[in-house]
Amino acid sequence: MDRRKQTLFESFNNAISGLIRAVKIERNMKIHLVAGVLAMILGFVFDLSLVELMILSVTITIVLTLELVNTAIEKTIDLVTNEYHPLARLAKDIGAGAVFVAALNAVIVGWLLFGRRVIQISLPFREAFIVQPADLIVLGLGLSFFGVLFFKGVTKAKSPLLGGLPSGHSALAFGLATAIYFYSGSLLISFLGFFLAFLVAQSRVQGKIHNLTEVIAGSILGIVVMALVFLLKEFWHI
């Protein structure tokens, strides 16, 4: 191994080379890079303010940086051992989890920056500064999803997507049904929404992915979180 001290130019060149190789070999890196470029283009199209562009830039940078770190972790583990080891699997999963959290944050930031502007295209100007139902639904579903991840971590579920307490599918399905209830004001439409949510929950039990307790817990979580979001909106009159 060459242990001589690298010049500043060599260090810079190696860093660029590593970035290019990561883009070449990692599919997710390509996806994040394209998404980031498109987001910046949209930022200029929608005439974001300087602060908003800075927030968007930092968000994109965080996602790309963590993807690079995750790739480095994976390659280092593969260099050390080709055999399966629980700790190696855990390290890779945690690295991927870091990227997932950053990507989820990027989605939230993207919605906050672009969501209302997209809605405004089809809304009268006087409604531009009113909190839209879509905002509340996205917020409620996001909180429900984080709640599912939290409780699955607390209960040490074997898989974040397959099985475990509570059922994520049930939480999201009943969260949407609750949003339909608050937004539609129609008992018939609300009944249909909850009926569809029930079918989703029932399919999780029938497919032996979740038991009844896990499904009920997920359903309650989705209903409570979404209801609180809509009720707080009414409380603050926003």
Structure in a nutshell:
This protein has helices spanning 8-25, 27-45, 50-80, 86-120, 133-154, 168-184, 187-206, 212-236. By secondary structure, it is mainly alpha-helical.
Structure characterization notes:
The protein has helices at 8-25, 27-45, 50-80, 86-120, 133-154, 168-184, 187-206, 212-236. The chain folds into two domains: 1-128, Helix Hairpins (Orthogonal Bundle), CATH 1.10.287; 131-238, no CATH class. The radius of gyration is 22 Å and the shape is flat. By secondary structure, it is an all-alpha fold. Helix content is 79%, strand content 0%. Residues 125-130 have low confidence and may be disordered. The protein contains eight helices and no strands. Helix 5 (133-154) crosses helix 8 (212-236) and helix 7 packs antiparallel against helix 8. The protein starts with 7 loop residues before the first helix and ends with a helix. The relative contact order is 0.07.
Number of strands: 0
What sort of overall outline do the alpha carbons produce when their principal axes are compared? flat
- Return the domain count: 2
Q: What is the succession of H and E elements?
A: HHHHHHHH
Task: Indicate the radius of gyration in whole angstroms.
Answer: 22 Å
Level-1 CATH class name of the largest domain: Mainly Alpha
Helix segment count? 8
CATH topology of the largest domain: Helix Hairpins
Uncertain residue segments: 125-130
Helix/strand class: mainly alpha
